[in-house]
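WARN retry 2 of 3 for item q-0093 after timeout on previous attempt; input resubmitted unchanged.
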Amino acid sequence: MFVLDTDIVTLLEHGHDQVSLRLRQANEEIVTTEITRIEILQGRFASVLKAEDGEKLLHARRRLEEAESRLERVRILPIDAKAAATFDLLLENKKLKRIGRGDLLISAITLARRATLVTRNLKDFRQVSGLQVENWAV
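OK item q-0093 returned
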């Protein structure tokens, strides 16, 4: 199972050739996490709320609808009991606090499923012991 991080989902939205190619070649299930869903939708909601005029408001609303539609087509891994327990274990490692709460939650969900995280953020995620990571954007 490949778990797409928020940065990879964003690249797919923009039609990134290499990521799109790797997605088509993948022979395992492609999923994302509840955290990525939250991060993407938070950004779209913020755009709607910050729109400077009617035209930008309509554009932001279209982008929100498109994001919601795309997210409906992919399985989203929730924070379940196993992910929560893994999250507690990760919190015990003080040096992991630097990578950020969202990335820690994505790590926990991915580790709990024994999956591979697809991300460009190798610097932070490689700090998480046992987490398998790949960068499809290169």
